[in-house]
Design brief:
The protein has about 200 residues and is α/β, with parallel strands linked by helices. The protein has helices at about 25-30, 45-55, 95-110, 140-145, 160-165; strands at about 35-40, 40, 70-75, 75, 125-130, 135-140, 150, 185, 195. Strands 6-5-9 form a three-stranded mixed sheet, covered by helices on one side. It has a two-stranded antiparallel sheet with strand order 1-2. It has a two-stranded parallel ribbon with strand order 3-8. The protein is elongated.
Amino acid sequence: MKSSYDSISAQLLVVKGENGNLLSYHTAQKLGLIAVYVNTATIADSDKNSPELLKEEFKSLFGGIGKVQNKEVKLHIDPDVAPRQQPHRRTPFHVREDVEKELERLEKLDIIEKVEGPTPWVSPIVIVPKKSGEVRICVEMREENKAIKREKHLMPTIDDLIVDLNGTTHFSTLDLSSGYHQLELAPESRYITTFSTHVRF
């Protein structure tokens, strides 16, 4: 604890309302009121040390892209729709290296896999540049969508949600990174998603 003769500088924010006073983490730490321990190491500067210590402690949560466990997505494919092998679209030379790196990354993450032998469905890819300078690989699936039967699910109404959330006190918002890539396709549904690239194996 700080002695009565010690003093610190702190920023005060005055807001409307009747809520109690809040003391920030940094101010409480300067006053010696709290000490946070992670893996027996005191966090001296939470902005710099805390994320690194947490990443070290929970390595399995910060690696890869993650998948929904024990769940595979099955596509219902209409056998009456004739398969299409669409013509390959040429990848511009100036982005081919970036495309190859992205394909390699996706394969390492177990998001895509190489196909051996003939396949009834083949789609071209479309390259979309990102603001970061990287590329996003999209697959032209309009022909395949004609063969995929839609599952029907009722969307909840506002009244339904109010009833479901009645009495709830904790809420969270999650933004999944590459959300669709975290859903694994059932093996029998993968052939319709085959796409072609300029890469020769």
